[in-house]
Amino acid sequence: MSVSNVVDGIDQIQFEHVRVLVLTDVPEGEVTLVDTAFDENGPELVETLEEEYGGVDRVVITHGDHGHHGGLSHVMDAFDPELAMPADESKLYEHLEEEDLDFEPDVAYEDGDVLDGNIRVIQVPGHTEATSALLLEDRNILISGDTLDGSDRGGLPAGYLLPPPALFNDDHRAAELNLYNLLEYDFDTLLVFHGSHVFENPKQKLDDFLVEREWNEWDPRTE
């Protein structure tokens, strides 16, 4: 496990297979944790949050994969933060029920909602039912959730973007097609949870990727 700064005001806590992001002063004077890694990462995550930040004020869960919400009970028990989760992510609520965890979100967000701290929710269904990206509109920073991975996750050169592997998607076709939702917004930094972040022209690189897909009938702009 390691802690490092990504951009001003945003750190990452890196575990073996996934990372979480910590937003300091978002909203002003508060600490926001985005996702909580796996359950087995929970104790170390709590210890690190306490040592590095003195705790957290809010947790935002992006979607229902175990690697993004597994440590939630540890964080909730330790800090009792405000909890924001996607309202329509049945996979997430089913997992919590299976684990006998009765966490009701303080904020059950939907596509287009703006969370405190000027964080806009952009949902990209396909990886899961309501996989959500988070746009820090004041800074043009997009946090991918699992809408996109760094290209080096798939053994390609870093600095580019790919959708999650088909193996991990509920509907791979939708996971790619719905990436057009992201192009409606402006962002010049894209932070991912798997692979390397993209700091140079991420929106143009995403646009180029989508245009060059072999199945161009998927492109909404060709309809």
Automatic annotation (TrEMBL):
<feature type="domain" description="Metallo-beta-lactamase">
    <location>
        <begin position="17"/>
        <end position="197"/>
    </location>
</feature>
<protein>
    <submittedName>
        <fullName>MBL fold metallo-hydrolase</fullName>
    </submittedName>
</protein>
<dbReference type="InterPro" id="IPR001279">
    <property type="entry name" value="Metallo-B-lactamas"/>
</dbReference>
<dbReference type="Pfam" id="PF00753">
    <property type="entry name" value="Lactamase_B"/>
</dbReference>
<dbReference type="InterPro" id="IPR036866">
    <property type="entry name" value="RibonucZ/Hydroxyglut_hydro"/>
</dbReference>
<dbReference type="InterPro" id="IPR050662">
    <property type="entry name" value="Sec-metab_biosynth-thioest"/>
</dbReference>
